[in-house]
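Why predict the complex rather than its parts? Because the way molecules touch one another can change local conformation, and only a joint prediction can capture that. The input here totals 672 residues.
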Amino acid sequence: MALTEHMITFDHVSKCYVRQARTFRESLAHLGGRSAETDSPGGAGFWALQEVSFKVKRGETLGIIGDNGAGKSTLLKLMAGITVPTHGQVDVKGRISSLIELGAGFNPDLTGHENIYLNGAVLGLTRREIDECLEQITAFSGLDRFLDVPVKYYSSGMYARLGFAIAVHVKADVILTDEILAVGDTAFQRQCLRKFKELQEASTIIFVSHDLVRVKEVCSRVLWIRQGRLHCDGEAGKVVDAYLQAVQQERDRTLRADGDLPHEPEERRRGTGEVEISEIMTCNAAGEPRVVFRSDEALMVRIKYRIRKFGYDPGFGVNIMSHDGVFVHGTNTFIHGMVLDLTKESGTIELVYPNLPVVPGTYWLTAGATSDNNWSMPYDLRERVRKFEVLSTRRDGGVICLEHRWSDPVQH
Amino acid sequence: MMQHVTRLIRYRGLLWNLALSELKAKHRQTALGMMWALLQPVSLMVVYAIVFSVFVSVPVKDVPYALFAYVGLVTWLFFATSLSTGTVSVVAQMNLITKANFPREVIPLAKLLAAGFDFAIGWGCFIILLVLYGTPVKPSWFIFPWVLLVHVFFTAGMVLWGSALYVLKRDVGSLLPLILQVWMFLSPVIYPSDLIPDAYKALYLLNPMAAIIEAYRGVTLGGTFPPFAIMAPATVIALTVFISGYAYFKFTEVRFADIM
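Output of the joint prediction:
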């Protein structure tokens, strides 16, 4: 048995939430009407999880991914013993520290110091055990000057810091986490990540996050929960990539659900009107309309135009802005020295980006047509006319992922 | 049952911590702080003493009415405060219940403990007064712990019942003040049980609170041993309420996080 020591075992676990009658009146109605018990799938209850089975070994770091409402939180609550399964067996060995919500047990009227003891007690520590790690907790949180202040005066960042510091210093066999590495400033996040890696050596960690980059980085194995079922269980990289692809397809479908491209409500348009930009589309390399792109994919901007009055030296331009307004890239036909000889009344021009080396996020397109590179008085300028999303599994800082390569260290 | 108790003992730190933080949070924000623990029963005592010994004369044997009422009030306040704060406590801590796993009964029991602090101060001051007035310590005092245990177990049982029921049925919250009001008048808090006609007396004393208050008074003021015929049923009822309350609480506990 020692070879396969399973810290967590889920055996055909299903969880059904049933709305409870809250008042006497409701329960009276219940009695009078029918004895509505939902004990089988397909009943009136909501099945948050169905037939989920898996085992987690000691020392494993297991990531759990899935859309909102897929059942990740229910899974965590079952592991923590906060709720019990409707069917099946859940078995968790050893002491559990749950970081499902940092500082959940804080009493706002008490000081930071008092809350360390309170929160430690919630996690099942005795006073002496907390005494032993009080110094580490204080040092880790970096809040020693504020420990005599009631936590209601803390900023949300300080709150999370203290919560994290307490939760990670509990010596636990199984650590359950939910979006914990997303708290505080970057310096504290780095500190958390370091501590996290340290914990990985000794404990079994369950890591629930929407941050797929992190999941890939810290987990060895990932479960993908989809609509309450275990959709995929395997090596982290593979599962995350499969999930990413599904997300991309799904989001693309919903964003383009209406068939025609929707009008962006934030669009601003101005121009003298000699040339009209009639349609702007974002497409993949094959020319199929798309709104979600992976950073290694090609983006093709297709511009359809109509000419009302032929003018001198016409040209087109495209700008890409990030969601928070950073001007990421701009180009136009004039910069490229192109002389367009437009003789027909309408046409299409395409701009291709072979890949999108930008950080993941939402981006806005601005497209326009003008004469003689004069953008202060354009023919037609459509600002924020389209948006598209970029997904990525690489996460460098900044705006643009510059090509780069690290050498192996040369040691002297 | 035993494994529940073992687990509860392991989490005694949390029980203590919750009770203490309740007290700290409560007293830190009031100007008089800890004084309130004493002010509440004393001020009630003064009011009742004026009403029932000046306006309406309630016949009380041998002792000043103020002392008589004080014992009843301190005893009743512990019960009523525990029950009213304890009943809503689990729902009030739902944030904690849906986020962490610990024996849920520590939440209502911490309220009991916090109320017990006021109760201890109430009795402590009373005993100091008795000593200052040179009242001799009578052998009846040895029964005091027994009465106290019955009192605490009965209250704890009621709090466990109340808090578990309140999670399932919020009507309990609206019903409780009414029940407590009626219950207080059905107990000899501010009048002696001698006023009850003999025909109903046996029935009247089946109310554990009546038996407990009478017993406290007998032990501390009258120096008499409470009759076994009163204490025995009270003890049995208190233990029954406690054990059934604890069992019911643990039975419904697993559903708490789902219901909220």
